[in-house]
Amino acid sequence: MGLCMDLGHSLRTGADVVKELAEAGSRLLDVHIKDLESATEKKSQCDVGQGVMPVVAIFRQLMKMNYRGCVNLEYEINGDNPVPGMLHSLGYMRGVLAGMAG
Fold it and tell me: What domains, with CATH codes, occur in the chain?
């Protein structure tokens, strides 16, 4: 049985999301990522890279695991015009990955 891990929900429960990814191991099939200004408040969602989500550590762990599944941006804010924030979030994550590769 595989897992789809929603990192925003996991972080809000107080979980160490990097540790949880490692423990999921080969059962991890899919990841949903968002960022939060507060690790406990759902309404504190923000663009990825502007909050408390340990994005660099998450990607390091996924690479260490040789993870081959998807990391899906879950962007639920700025409903009237979400594209700029989505692009910023995706750009931040791509930058993290590029920095890790170089």
Answer: 3-101 (3.20.20.150)
